[in-house]
Each structure stands twice: as structure tokens, then as C-alpha cells.
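haha ok so turns out i had the wrong file open the whole time. this is the CORRECT one, sorry everyone. sequence first:
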Amino acid sequence: MFDPKAIDDPKLERLFNYWSDKAVSNRPAARAAIDPTELGDLIKNLAYLDFDPDRNDYVFTLAGSRVEEMTGRSLRGVYLSEVVDGPHLAQTLARFTMVMEHGEPHYCECNLAFLGRPQWPARRLLLPLSRNGRKADSLLFAAVLQPH
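then structure:
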């Protein structure tokens, strides 16, 4: 069960509160209700991902500059499996899918591992989004890197 008090980063806490204000009746926030421009300095740390059931993978539809800097490339139209380091891919896919299936946020302090890049300690928040207002069908990803 997700505990919002576990979020140990003011930016991610602000994002969670923003997302919570957009959610209705314990359902994921509508994707259209989230306006990244309302999030100020956090926009560079955000990415939207859609689930592609044909590939059992997530595709980036939008990514902020800091997320693209973490991966070392432009991400629009790129699949998660193309940027996440092999040993971490299965775990990452499982976590993303859990968030979508349960419609519940997930926060962690973890190491982000992108192909060809050093691992970065980070605080990561995954938030489910919905186009139809009922079932999660995309994710809002936010990460704040921590000093080594």
C-alpha cells in the first residue's frame, strides 16, 4: 500500500499533491487534467509513458530535459526497453505494470540504470493516469537525482 508520507523530496511531494487534487473517487487522475506547465521547475524531471500491449513495453510520449539528460538521448517515441539497462528492465517493467494495474502511485529511493550511463541514486515517483477516467492506461514518471 502506498504511503504519501514516505515521499522524501519536496518536488515529488508537490507533484503527488497536484496529482491527488486531479484524481476523482480513488481513480487515477485524467491524463488531460495534468498540465506540466503548472508544475514549474519540476517539468524537466517528468516523463509520460504509454503502455504498448503488443510489445509489453512502455513508450515515452513526452520527456523533460532532465529525464532526457539522464538517458543521454531524446525520448519521444522510444521504448523503455531501449533505454533501461538489461538487468533492471524486468524489475522496472514489473513496477510500472503494478502501478497501472492497481491504479496506485509508487515511490522509491533507487538507482536509475540507463543503457551506457552511470547508475544514479534517485527518488522516483510513478503516478497512474487515465484517458477514460476509470482505468490507468499511462504513467507519469518523475525522478529527482541525488548526489553520489
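Helices lie at 10-22, 65-71, 86-102.
again sry for the mixup
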